[in-house]
């Protein structure tokens, strides 16, 4: 009868804990990034029942139970689309890292981030999202107001390689940023100079250029048939100039000769022209039929390509699946300015809850680490999806079923205490 008391009391306490755990799961069924807790039970004591006939098997009877641990369900939650570019979801294994008060480092699957007043990426509790900065943002006088400064992109970066797990820092997104102009250094032309043009007729090719000071200009090459034509092929004179008011230093004169098949006789056909203080190498052809040709009856569209970009201002941000933060500018240029870290652990179950929906490391989880490839470069080991959030992985049907089971077990144990008490009371009365 005493054993029934032990089992009943411990069972009531144990299943009350189970009710609390599953009740908490149900309460967080709509919490972004929430990972369900799974209660695990164990015996407090057990007694071995030995068979008097030396049977090879032994039976045990329990003398109470307890809540041994609460495991973390690492099942992937469903993804929900969002309009916020800083809403992030991890598809696969891994954790976002956030830095709290006193630079304490925590880990979470909740990716509902935003920026604070200073432009740092933070979660709903004000913790800073961790990652590696590209270190390619400086300061310069604001072109629109020289008395103030504006963040400026110092170099264009395609992607960022994460440093060490301990070297991750806060990520800041300027709300306004300047992309300096890139002067044009080369231009390439392709076209079919019309054989049927008469002497004096002009065939123009044009390309847009950017000067070192960021101003926009037009390179024009005017072709006219030479007065004297060879017996086979054609001969053309050209005048290249920058803008109509071009100075002599920005004007180049030359002659091109084509053979009977319409290919340039002299290759490569190149020249340099001054673009308001910056030299531009102009290419008219490097191999036969690759640049300019002069073929009768051939319909070849003209085209021109020049490098260089005008100045631009920040247009917005996006985050790719490799967690690179890409800044886009209104001049069409893109650059990564940082990369969000995705942390991994030897034992995710060993992480300790630190309140809310964040975790911290423990001796059981081990320290955070990054995956690397054969060349030593860090790889995420998962995909980061922006404009999306990971929903709670709690199955409401499973949670309600488990809650009913826990409630029934609680009632049964409570009933066993009442029954044991009645049996003891009867035994006492029998002695009277």
From TrEMBL:
Residues 387-430 form the Flagellar basal-body/hook protein C-terminal domain. Keywords: Bacterial flagellum, Cell projection, Cilium, Flagellum. Its main location: other. Residues 214-278 form the Flagellar hook protein FlgE D2 domain. Gene3D superfamilies: Flagellar hook protein FlgE. It is found in: Bacterial flagellum basal body. The keyword Ribonucleoprotein does not apply. It comes from the Bacteria. InterPro entries: Falgellar_hook_FlgE_sf (IPR037058), Flag_bb_rod_N (IPR001444), Flagellar_FlgE/F/G (IPR020013), Flg_bb/hook_C_dom (IPR010930), FlgE/F/G-like (IPR037925), FlgE_D2 (IPR011491), LlgE_F_G-like_D1 (IPR053967). Residues 5-35 form the Flagellar basal body rod protein N-terminal domain. Residues 89-136 form the Flagellar hook protein FlgE/F/G-like D1 domain. Pfam families: Flg_bb_rod (PF00460), Flg_bbr_C (PF06429), FlgE_D2 (PF07559), LlgE_F_G_D1 (PF22692). Belongs to the flagella basal body rod proteins family. This is Flagellar hook protein FlgE. The lineage of its organism: Bacteria, Pseudomonadati, Campylobacterota, Epsilonproteobacteria, Campylobacterales. The gene is flgE.
